Fold:
Amino acid sequence: MSKKEDILARYRAHVRERFDRPVLDDIQAITYPDPLAQFVRMSQTVGGRVVEAEGNINDLIRKLFPEAKEIASNLPEITIATRNPDTVESARALNGTDVGVIRGCFGVAENGCIWIPQTMKEKAVCFISENLVILLPKDRIVNNMHEAYRQVEFHDYGYGTFISGPSKTADIAQVLVMGAQAARSVTVVLV
Amino acid sequence: MSTLHSEKAKAFLQDEAYSQWHDNTFWSVRTKRDTMARGLPEWEQLREKASAIKRHTVTHLDEYLDQFATNAEKNGVIVHWAADAAEFNETVYGILKEHGVRKMVKSKSMLTEECEMNPYLEARGIEVVETDLGERIIQLKGQKPSHIVMPAIHLNHDDVGELFEEKGISDEKGNHDPTYLTYRARLSLRNEFLTADAGMTGANFGIAATGDIVVCTNEGNADMSTSCPKLHIAAIGLEKVIPDYECLAVFQRMLCRAGTGQPTTTYTSHFRKARAKDAEMHIILVDNGRSDWVGNPDHWEVLKCIRCGSCMNTCPVYRRSGGYSYSYFIPGPVGINLGMLRNPREHSGNVSACTLCLSCQSVCPVKIDLGDQVYKWRQELRALGAANKGKKALCDAMSLMFGSSGLYRTATAVSPLLNILPHGLVHSGVNPWAEGHEMMEFPKKPFHSIFKDLEKE
Ligand code: SF4
Structure:
């Protein structure tokens, strides 16, 4: 027998009563009168910043990050990008990115999560950048994670993540610090 | 007569300021959890559902594991099975050796602690770098985690500051500001991410319907660990597999609210395939006792645990004794129970570390009856030959006394005599219930005589 069969046989020999799957579609999950307003509130609570798109997106990014030198994006409208995660030689070449610009699919009002399926060759851009800008269509906000998981889709790359605010830690003496190993700031641009 | 736990707890309590801080810190995390729970009108319904999903899944693991492995393989992932810790460690080493890996970055995984993987790999010349800040700190310090979610909670910022100075991670001597120290650790770890040959993650969930593994972190270290290297190894305990996204939504909503009092972790990452065409993703499914535990009629439900940590945060004994007072590597209520499943003789000292207040089971998001289980373990100690000899003798004497009305009357009639016995005799150590607190004063007249007198009147 293979190791898998060994383990499963052992399990079957020991498992006792088998319980049925519960009904889940009767969960009375929270909804909000204004999901967008709740999403904005939660994004701020988790340490993110939310701005409305105005004028040219490149000008807006320049205005938000006047010091930024290296800007990484594979989005065609980001003409100020100096690096492209689709064409960099390796993920490591994205280190030192000041601002990464990516697109989010939808936001979740209850916790500020944004679904980001990988749509670029090097997903490192989502984490390695000092500052992350997420472009998010403002008419795509769901109430809660139940609704969210009904919409989750992947692209050909087999990776996707919900991001809610900047990377953070409280591992030193329980003091909350933004910017642990990944993006130190997250700005959501509502488009 | 004291257990190992109570002896270690005594040492922990020596530093009064620190033990007070520890207690307050965890109580404040518990309070944050309450705020989160109250913020969702459906919270208790979610707990019911979470418990029922886990009951169902844990008792259908053969089907879900098969489905999970089949789907993962369809996604091009290489799936391994390990019966125990030794097989797990060998499998990891085998993969690393085949790829010529010298350095592996790793995000937090309690399973690798359970299997003692790091020392095994290090003895074979592979450098393992923990990338969760708390885990990194204790790795540099040569210690083990004292909490499953906040592993370095037993160290303060001065401890960490001095450690970073010693290891050359920070260069401003005497700057022990947590923001500065976190930044210095970020720079040092960034270098590790860029130079590692492999990345390892644990998994909070495995999704049978799609073959994804889901990893929840606040730091983004699981994503950083897997973004540069061409090799990703995921270690996952059998019980972590759940049916589908509909179930996942329930757990995603609860894990962090219950554990740290946040509405979500910063990252909820789904890994479904290898990173690139020339990259590999391996999943190792680890049994290590789980397929036996599922057959334990009184204790199998511990397998429902999602390792949120909230039973520790709320536990009055954990808060006042710290993670290192327990003999098992997972402390607190769930650790007591897991330790007993693992090795009851070795870990029976922990079952006394419980006041049976049952706070743990009133917060557990998957409704494990943790305190009731501790109570059951206590009843089983005798059969396991692990009962405390002194307490056992006194209990035998008590059951003799309470079992015979004549003996009971004599005893209650003479009990006021205890009040006049010298303090030193009552607290002589023969009486374990007088340790650490005063004995009650026995009434002059026992209740049954008062009652009889009242009846006469
Ligand atoms: S037993 Fe319950 S409360 Fe404790 S860590 Fe597991 S899921 Fe959380």
